[in-house]
Amino acid sequence: MSKPAIFIDGEAGTTGLEIRKRLETRTDIEIVSIAPEKRKDNAERARLLNACDLAILCLPDAAAKEAVSLVINPSVRVIDASTAFRVSLDWVYGFPELTARQEDRIRASKRVSNPGCYPTGALGILRPLIDAEILPRNHAVTVNAVSGYSGGGKELIAQCKNPVTNGYGRAGPYVMYGLEQNHKHIPEMRLHSGLDEDPIFLPVVSNAFYRGMLIHIALRLKGLKRQTGSEITGETIHKVLADHYDGKRYVKVEDLQTEIQKDFALTPLEQNETNNLQLRIFWNRDKETVLLTACLDNLGKGASGAAMQNAEIMLGLGR
Question: What sign for the dihedral angle of Cα 111, 112, 116, 119?
Fold first, then answer.
C-alpha cells in the first residue's frame, strides 16, 4: 500500500515551514514539494494540487481561494490554514475537540479549515460552557490575549529581528492592536462558540518572545446566576471543562485553583514546541469570580500542530 502524499502549497512561509518540519520526522507519508522557481507557476501548482492525497494551504486568503479553485480532482482533500474558509458552512472547522462529533466530521470531510491561534484558546474555553448552558449565548464576553511576534507574520518577524526597528511601533514589548474591533478572528470566535453577539477581543503582541500564547476570559458568577437561574461555582465550570476534554490527548484541564502561591507565575511559553492546549480555572470564592486561561503554542496547536492533527484524522494516520 502506497504512502499518502501531502503537498504544502506555501511551504516557504512561517506555518508552511513548521508543518514541513513536522512532516519530515514521519515515515508514513510522502512529502510532495514544488521547485522554488515554480512556486508562482499556476500550472505546476495545479498539477501538484491534483496529484496529492492531501493539500495543506499555507497562503494568504486570496491565494488560498485561488488554490482551491485549481483543485479539480474529487479525491483530493484540502486543509486551509488561512482565514478564507473558517466561517464557511461548506467547510468543516478543524478543531477536533470542539464538540463530541467534530473529529468524526473532520474525518469524513474533504475540506477542512484550520482554526486561528487566538480562537483556539478562546473557543476551547467558551464552547463547552455555552453547550452546557453555563454561559448564556447572549453573555457579554471579553477575550484578552497575548501572543509571541511570530503570529504577526513575515513583516512583524522582520521588524522584531531588525535591531533598528525592534522595540518600536508594532515591534514593541507590549502592543495592543485590533482596537477598532474588526479583527479577522472575531467572526470565527462568534460562529464556533455559539455566541449571539461578537465578543470584545483585545489582542496584544510582544517582541519579547517569538512563539507562545495566553488567552484569558474573566467571569462574574453573580451575573451568571442571574442569567441562568441556577447556582454557578468554580467547581461547576471546572467539571464542565474537565468532562468535555476527558481523554483528549492534546487538551489538558489543570486542577481547579482556589489559592495562588506567591511564587506562581503564568506565562505564554508553557506549551511551546507542543500541540497542547492547557486550560486553567482560577476561582475566587469571596469575590465570586472565575478567571479562565488557555495556553498554547501559536505555531503548534494554533497553526502547524493543528494542521498535522487534522491531517492524521483525515488520512487515518497513526499518531
Answer: positive
Q: What cell was used for 143? A: 477575550
- How far, in Å, are 111, 162, 222 from residue 92 at the CA level? 6, 39, 36
Using alpha carbons only, give the angle 224, 198, 183 rounded to the nearest 5 degrees: 135
3-state secondary structure of 234: helix
pLDDT of 229 above 60 = yes
Asked whether 299 and 211 are in contact (CB, 8 A), the reply is yes
Q: Where are the domains of the chain?
A: 5-115+303-315, 118-298
H helix and E strand count, the chain? 10, 13
- Number of other residues whose CB lies within 10 A of the CB of residue 214: 24
Q: Identify the pLDDT of residue 319.
A: 62
Helix (H, G, I), strand (E, B) or coil at 64: helix
What percentage of the chain reaches a pLDDT higher than 90? 89
Between the CA of residue 28 and those of 4, 76, 304, what are the distances in Å? 8, 18, 18
**Catalytic site residue from 58, 117, 160, 295:** 117
Q: Is pLDDT at 1 greater than 60 in this prediction? A: no
117 is an active site residue: yes
Cell of 172: 514593541
Q: CA of 7: how far to CAs of 11, 15, 44, 138, 310, in Å? A: 9, 14, 12, 42, 14
C-alpha cell at position 250: 492534546
H/E segment holding residue 244 = helix 234-244
pTM of structure: 0.94
What band does 107 get if pLDDT is binned at 50, 70 and 90? very high
- Residue 5, classed as helix, strand or coil, is strand
Tell me the CATH number of domain 118-298, given options 3.90.550.10, 1.10.3730.10, 3.30.360.10, 3.30.70.20: 3.30.360.10
5-115+303-315 belongs to which homologous superfamily?
A: NAD(P)-binding Rossmann-like Domain (3.40.50.720)
